[in-house]
Every structure is written in C-alpha cells, then in structure tokens.
Amino acid sequence: MMSVRKFMGTAIMLVILAVWLSGCSVFMAAKQPEKKDVDLLKEGTSRAMLISEFGAPVISEHRNGKRYEIFKFVQGYSTGAKAGRAFLHGAANVVTLGLWELVGTPTEITFSGDEMAFQVSYDENDIVDEVAVIKKE
What we know:
Elements: H1 4-21, H2 24-30, H3 47-54, E1 59-63, E2 66-75, H4 79-95, H5 101-110, E3 114-122, E4 128-136
Antiparallel strand pairs: 1-2, 2-3, 3-4
Helix pairs in contact: 2-4, 2-5
C-alpha cells in the first residue's frame, strides 16, 4: 500500500512533468509560417509586390534580355488558424495533464506548411509576364 507521502510526491512529480511538457505544441502552432498570398503569382503583378510578399528571390538572372527569378517559400497558415490550433493544444494539455504533447508535438511537426517554388519572368518594366510552378505540395 502506498503511503500518503509517497502518493503526494508522485502526484507532484506528475504535475511538474505535465507543466514542463505542456506548451511545446502550443508554441509550435503559434510559430508556424504565415500564409502567403499566392494569388499575386500571376501575369501583371509588379516585381516589387512579389518581393514584398515572398521576400528576395533565391535566384535572379537575365536570359535573352529578360529577368527570371525563382521564389521559394513555405506556405503557412492564417493568423486565425494558428491561434485556433494553439488554443486547442493548450486546452488538450490542461485536460490531459500534458499527455497531449505526445500527440500534439508530432502533429505540429507534420503540419508545418508546404514548400513551394515558382519561376517568374518579367517584361522590360519588371511586370510579371509568365509564372511556372516548380514545386507545389
């Protein structure tokens, strides 16, 4: 038979462990990449707009008098989706005393956004005239 002192010690250790474990999936959900506006990747968009949305291109070169660039990024999630996921992870952590982390953390690792890459060519005014999908998961 377990003594009260031993039971309390075990209970305190479990609570400390639960608090220590909880929050990893919450933090990961909140720190997922932002959702990018891929609708900008179309004919007629300015180069400046693409750079402001996707950052600097990974490759920029001139061929046959035209500029070609490759944009690579991770398509993330909207602010609302990230906040909702973080809230659900937090609530599940409280209800399960932190055991949810065994499911929540691998889930956040798996659903960490999709890698995307596009090749864009521009006219003489740095306006998109062609977009080619290189990678879209």
